[in-house]
Amino acid sequence: MYKIVEKRQLNSEICLVELQAKDLSLAAKAGQFVILRIDETGERFPLTIYDFNKDKGTISVVCQAIGVSTKKLCALQKGDSIVDIAGPLGHATKTDNIGKIICIGGGVGTAEAYPIAKAFKGSGNDVSVIIGARTKDLVICEEEIRQFSDKVYVATDDGSYGQKGFVTDVLNDLLSKDKYDLVFAIGPLIMMKMVAQLTKPFSIKTLVSLNSIMIDGTGMCGGCRIKYAGESKFTCVDGPEFDAHLVDFDDVMRRQSRYKNKETKALDNYHKNCRIGLDK
Amino acid sequence: MREQDPKERIRNFKEVPFGYNEEEAVKEASRCLQCKVAPCAKGCPAEIDIPSFIKAIKEKRFLEACSIIKKTNNLPAVCGRVCPQEDQCEKLCVLGKKGEPVNIGNLERFAADYQMQHENNKATFVKNNTQGKKVAIIGAGPAGLTCAADLAKLGYSVTIFEALHKPGGVLSYGIPEFRLPKAIVEKEVESIKNLGVEIRYNYIIGKIKTIAELQKDGFEAFFVGTGAGLPYFLGIEGENLNGVYSANEFLTRVNLMKAYKFPEYDTPINIGKRIAVVGGGNVAMDSARCALRLGAEEVFIVYRRTEKEMPARIDEVHHAKEEGIKFHILTNPVKITGDEQAHVKSLVCMKNQLGEEDSSGRRRPIPIKDSEFEMDMDTVIIAIGNGSNPLLLDTIEGLKLTRKGNIETDEDGKTNINGVYAGGDIATGSATVIAAMGAGKRSAKAIDKYLKQR
Fold first, then answer.
1. Domain map of chain A by residue range?
2. Is B191 within 8 Å of B125 (Cβ atoms)?
3. Nearest chain A Cα distance for residue B431, angstroms
4. Which CATH number is B233-384's, of 3.30.1300.10, 3.40.50.720, 3.90.1570.30, 3.50.50.60?
5. Which label site among B150, B174, B247, B335 has the fewest CB atoms less than 10 Å from its CB?
């Protein structure tokens, strides 16, 4: 069992969970992920490592309550435990000093962009961060990101905060005014696809982090496979980072939707059981 | 052996053969000639004293029968169920020359089950660590569990590091409940833990710690039994369509994650009505029989050679056929087509004919020109084997690998790195549970020798 030592609600849908996992915290690096299982009937699902504290022996993940597993995790409180956490998985981000970098985080992806942007800054890069959200209340991690970033931009779909529009609008402005060496994007698949399309004509190296449906996270099942430069790659062991210009995003999006019908059924069942619990 | 009726069992995950009752076991054991030279025992990679345990059953000393087996084999309830006895002990049984060999496998299962029911999980040894040395085992599958048990019996302090959240490796994620109930696996593992073996789950060596780091933690010898690694795909068009699974993913969802109990368990699986399983091994048979139990209407095995070349156990092919699984032999998939939602629609295949023998000693399948045909399908499961997983191997500096990426070892599992041993599928490529166990045993002896000479 792995104990939750801290839990914080970042907005109405997204929470931060800090878990006791000593050895994992010692090995964790920016860009890696963990596989979690909440309870004995739970599924295994991946979450990017948001932060780690080697002294406390903890790792933190940020989780948006969408499906059954993420809802279960977000419903837990400080002092509760989950049954499994395995990692750190995937390759760590190579955060060499390469110059001027733009990190883009969309939605819950903002939390995933945070450790990467921080690590790039740590190795001496000039780091600009673009945060995207549907509306002001859903913007997360802004304060943490402002602490180390050279520039921070916010875009909201409804214009309630920062610039009205998408992260790609901000990105387009930046790219047309200045020269950058790398763009790193984490967020909804459609956002990453649009970022890749935008940066391609500028010939800027663009990386994305893919958080596919997976089970073991060690290469054994192949469920997370994607089409990459005409080849099959496993996001768990070959990734999670990939050159955005070589990813077949349409294929990734189709694959990511393969349990849609089952997810609805699982959620119905989850809500039904929650109600049964409340009636007791 | 009495079995669940095929008509009933194709809709449940309960075990297919019922196992002997006491009377049946004694009767079968009485057929044993108790040969002095015991040819059967020579066919057992787990080195079981077969005539002795059969004699004990014959004389109704059932608990003793199991103790005799457990002297050398710590997974008797598993082996009794999944060993290919027809190619090992039973193949060498003298009675088999003129008639039916003694059913050694079922007798082993009987003795093991009897012990579980009657003196479950009594600690047979106490943790003593008389050797004062620590050994690390990577992977809690058949090879690792066997090696760990043997080393614990020799007095070493043994820790198994397991990547998944449950022990057993392929016994848990791969072999289905109806062939090997998970409660049995758990009990067998429990008995190994009672020898003093510690198991740490969610512990992915190569990621959370390297072997070099474990050395600093005081481990003096290592056994790598990480099993089959990355699943092979066919490399044909349409393999990323929704509804295409590797057998590893399919079986892991069903067996380890219990997708057959969805939504009680959270892990989903999509099955559909018509399912093609590509491959001819036990994994293909397991996948096909799981698909049937998940509610498929028609399940097909698609295999490129003939039934004679199939690597699956005869029993498993027989069970599959009994359950109504259809076989398309000499058939080679060339394309998977999809519908507008990018879901599998059909499997396009070519017919083969057999040519000359290849390096495996089996006749090579050759596609027949213009023989293409299309079969409507909802799900395609690829069960054509696994390659080596580099996740751990890449982190062991200087480790010598074979051309196929498996760990190169000698007979005893010794690698080119001092103190590092390996066995099972990671060394041999896809093989059997018992072969992995045999490798675990040999490495345990070699590790003992190595540590004593240090």
1. 2-89, 100-279
2. no
3. 16
4. 3.50.50.60
5. B335
